[in-house]
Design goal:
This protein is α+β, with helices and mostly antiparallel strands and about 260 residues long. It has helices at about 75-90, 105-115, 175-180, 185-200, 205-210, 260, and strands at about 5-10, 15, 45-55, 65-70, 125-135, 140-150, 155-165, 170-175, 220, 225-230, 245-250. A hairpin with a 3-residue loop joins β9 and β10 (about 225-230). Mean pLDDT is about 85; it is low at about 1-15 and about 20-40.
Length: about 260
């Protein structure tokens, strides 16, 4: 199968320095300087894009892949973790075509599966993923990772993952790492309360509550008014309700979330 292939490392074209607001256009940020050890200073972003399709397919239903993600200058450990996370997103619903686990081979495998199973019927298979900076609070960097996969059927599968990185410690953080020791139960009590409030606000009946009970998630981010629990489709609600979010206000998290992350 012959394919068109565009792989742009935009270090020379699209680089920007870190700031404390959510990114809307990585190319619009001004050039900055990065600390060589990654513990302090600004982070200089590098935008990568990968677009691939089968040039033998003509029309609107051709399978395609579109990826856009960022890495950072002088941040090899972080960049390796980002690449690993992206590959994990791509491999979740991978078919039978062999691959070596790299981003490029996973893209090739997706298109090969599409060619074998969907090309003749023009089902319009697609795989999209975007990684961008969500926030930075002191040494805590949070990335938002969006994905969308369609392999036929009534609708595709969207998903969002939040990725937390401690720049001082140079390691990925889980929700457990964000909480004070021994505060896990207290945190989930707060989350259950917010879930109950969400059910009441949506005026959902008992049948819904029995079918879609509360379930913990470690997919969280720091929002404007609190720590937000993000749920992907089919987790605590049907597909038609999208991706619900529960926000625990910051004033309730004092002593539960570690102070260095709550008040950087």
């Amino acid at each position: 199968m012959r394919m068109t292939f565009v792989f742009l490392l935009a270090a020379a074209l699209l680089a920007g320095c870190d700031n404390n607001n959510q990114d809307t256009d990585p190319s619009a940020a001004k050039q900055g300087t990065a600390d060589a050890q990654g513990h302090t200073g600004e982070l200089v972003r590098i935008l990568h894009t990968l677009e691939k399709t089968d040039e033998q397919c003509q029309g609107d239903g051709c399978p395609k892949v579109n990826l856009a993600w960022i890495t950072f200058e002088n941040q090899p450990t972080l960049n390796e973790a980002i690449t690993t996370q992206l590959a994990g997103m791509l491999v979740q619903n991978q078919g039978s075509t062999p691959h070596d686990g790299t981003i490029e081979s996973l893209v090739d495998a997706f298109l090969a599966d599409a060619s074998d199973m969907a090309m003749a019927s023009k089902q319009g298979w697609e795989l999209n993923a975007t990684i961008k900076r969500q926030t930075r609070q002191g040494d805590l960097l949070t990335l938002r990772m969006d994905s969308y996969e369609y392999t036929g059927g009534a609708h595709g599968q969207p998903g969002v993952q939040y990725f937390h990185w401690d720049l001082a410690r140079q390691q990925k953080l889980t929700l457990a790492d964000l909480l004070e020791p021994g505060k896990k139960q207290a945190f989930w009590e707060l989350a259950r309360h917010q879930h109950q409030q969400w059910l009441d606000k949506e005026e959902l009946d008992q049948a819904f509550r029995d079918s879609w009970p509360f379930d913990p998630t470690d997919n969280v981010y720091f929002g404007k008014s609190g720590l937000v629990l993000h749920y992907n489709v089919y987790h605590i609600a049907p597909y038609a309700m999208g991706q619900p979010e529960l926000t625990i206000p910051y004033e309730k998290l004092d002593g539960i979330v570690r102070g260095k992350y709550l008040n950087p």
